[in-house]
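Sharing a chain and its predicted structure for anyone who wants a worked example. Both blocks are below, sequence first, tokens second.
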Amino acid sequence: MAHLRITDLNKSFGQNKVLQNISIETNDGELMVILGPSGCGKSTLLRLIAGLEDADLGEIWIGNKRVDKYPPRKRNVALVFQNYALYPHMTVEQNLAFPLKIAGESKKGIKEKVQNTAGLLGLSERLTSRPSELSGGQRQRVALGRAIIRQPDLFLLDEPLSNLDADLRLRMRREIVELQKKLGTTTVHVTHDQTEALTMADRMVVMDSGKIRQVGTVDEIYNHPADLFVASFIGTPKINLLDGWLENNVIKPFEAQLVKAPVGYIAKEVTIGLRPEDIIPINDGRYNGTVQNIEYLGDRSILTITYLDTKLTLLAAPDKYQKGDTLHFDIRIESVHLFSKENGVNLLS
């Protein structure tokens, strides 16, 4: 196994700074997911690792080798794209065998590896099929198989599930995670889909505008976001944000005593972050609001209420409330986030 280490990586296209001082280090055998909105630089980062683009500054190490000056073929990485990139005139067997033929492996070795890889991916019965005869999930498995068969030091996955429908995406997420754990190959997976990131990652890298906002486990990033961007980008429904005031460890407008106080904040304006699941509907709750909107999801409803001059989103049992109802609630004060008005930093992380 080999790990990836990136140090102070920078990339510009003309005057556009696409990546700024990117530093990341994976663990051996880790599945790291890079998450961020479209245009944040995550796919460019993957292309730099693969050698399809050259960095302006910085270093890329795979294992104990610095590879940023190597051509792609010498980096021993495998890149899987979202559009599969299969040869339509070739069978599954020929598509899988192609990278090994290019590498000059023997016919016997190729046949053995193709059979093993097809068995691993559940494609043994489809070796004579062409891509047009396969489902989307099967085509994606073939694309993964072409990467696996080379036994690379590093897998790079560039939004490989974005062309699949919702049900197939769910199944493929599970299959990729299981496969990655079975192989034990360090993997960097790029996506803009937070559900994909949260369900697949050992650790996540959250990017925005060419910069890293936070690196951490799923729990760290969801429950301890580094700043306002991370808190807002992660979570469905989105975190509630409202203007507040902190004075003597009491946050207003809730007039609630903080469990943990930020250092150096005695009396100051802040942005309060409160996730929907941390607003608890309860008959004798300390606060109340008026139900404005209800989204029915079967096992639960997403409610929008007005509290003072602010709209809040929370979760409730289905069919319990109607529009216009008064809803009483409490908040989990230990789960409240406070963000600086000046720079958006989480004051409690």
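Comments welcome. Residues 240-340 form a domain with the OB fold (Dihydrolipoamide Acetyltransferase, E2P) fold (CATH 2.40.50.140).
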